[in-house]
Amino acid sequence: MAKSTRIFLILALLGLAAFVFAHYRATTNLGAPARISGWTLLGSCVFLFLYNTRKKLPAPPLGTSRQWLNLHLIVGVLALVFFLFHINFRVPNGAFEVILGLVFLFIFLSGVLGIGISRGFARRLRTHGQEVVYEQIPVLRKGVAERADSLMLESTESNKSTVVMDYYTATLRPFFKKPMHYWAHLFDSRRPLAQLQHGIQDLRRYTDDSENEYLNQLEELVEIKNGLDYHYALQRTLKAWLFLHIPLSLALLILTALHLILVLSFNGGAS
């Protein structure tokens, strides 16, 4: 565990202890524990939302991205504790409070899921060929498809048999033209690739040495395309998670602001 992470954990535990003590004192002295938990929860939610802003800023003045991520995770867990205290460990009353609570829980669960898949996918991507930039995948995929078309055209011109071209047109051309096997790649299954490779091997029973040379090159292109699809599936899932998590976080802040306005209105503006 990094030194900065240990420091964050110690500070988090101290902050949590101070919060529990203040909440207990307010409860036993007929104070307003909901205000303590509410304002603490609001502050933690604002801080969590700022993580996305931090990623757009230069790293040196504000710490590294990894440090912010670790702090984001720690504060996220604290926010759940503050939330449970704020609702007094029971189901909220009223439709608005229920919706607000559900949005918070959904964001928390999506955050846990996102951290899990991002770390798992990052390890898998590092061990699955060279790094590929997501925005470049369509261009790279188109280039591989064009190479496959040119290769098969050359094969047809060089050989009288159309066995290879017929198989390519029926089976492999659709594979090269668009992303394929999304769910198989998410679950790290090599079955679709094995099926394509098996089909090419079966085809060799009907081809001569000259055609087999083209099949060798075609099989290499199939593996390259499969690698691009693998990166596409994992990176697209990561981006889709962010497109869900971040807007929901903004929605939570808006709902929280409305909740605060309602509370202050009913309490005559007392804070």
What is the helix fraction of residues, given as a range? over 70%
User: Can you count the helices?
Assistant: 9
**Poorly predicted runs of 5 or more residues:** none
H/E element string?
HHHHHHHHH
Q: What is the terminal separation in angstroms?
A: 40 Å
**Total domains, how many?**
2
CA radius of gyration is 28 Å
Structural class based on helices, strands and sheet pairing: mainly alpha
Largest sheet: none
What is the global morphology? elongated
Mean pLDDT: 88
Work out the number of β strands: 0
Task: Describe the protein.
With 271 residues, the chain is mostly helical. It folds into 2 domains: 3-120 and 247-266, no CATH class; 134-234, no CATH class. The chain is built from 9 helices and no strands. The protein has helices at 3-28, 33-54, 65-86, 95-126, 137-158, 163-177, 182-186, 191-203, 209-266. Helix 1 (3-28) packs antiparallel against helix 2 and helix 1 packs parallel to helix 3. The longest helix has 58 residues, at 209-266. The chain is elongated and about 95 Å long. The model has no long low-confidence stretch (mean pLDDT 88).
